[in-house]
Write a structure and sequence with these properties.
Strand content: 15-25%
Largest sheet: 4 strands, mixed
Helix content: 40-55%
Distance between the termini: 32 Å
Number of domains: 2
CATH class of the largest domain: Mainly Alpha
Length: about 180
Amino acid sequence: MKNLIPAIIQDSKTMEILMLGYMNEEARRLTEETGKVYFWSRSRKKLWMKGETSGNVLSVVSIVDDCDSDALLIKVNPAGPTCHTGSVSCFSDAFLRELECLIADRKEKMPEGSYTAYLFEKGVGKMVEKVEEEAAEVCKAATLETRERLVEESADLLYHLMVLLKENDLRFEDVVAELKKRFKM
């Protein structure tokens, strides 16, 4: 890490943290000169421009040193997903992974009073019933209710779907991989 500085990449519009990379002096100079973000690859030991193969370049809006000048905050306009997995951010799937781990933990430990454990206790039939019920509520909210209700019901549907996937030893990531395959992402 000698002569490298961490660079936090943030979407200038949404303010979402997109990724963390490392820059050496040359990467910073090229970033400032070209307006595209360059990094030093620690694994490949070479300079690279973000998006050079995917086309998902990061156009620089601003570069700011932190108070100790030992980290950078680079605000960008991304030209597509930033993460190599196809996600908008390298951190965006973190919550869903945490939720998936919590669901798995509930399945393993079956704590008393847990709604998730209750669903696992009742089995796949109850899970399917809940997914159908929540899907109907999503449709109703989309056509007859508010955007807020649509978000709430969509969250319920997604949660119950994740429980059903776990019951079948599948991960949400498996569903995302299928979507990427279909849309060639």
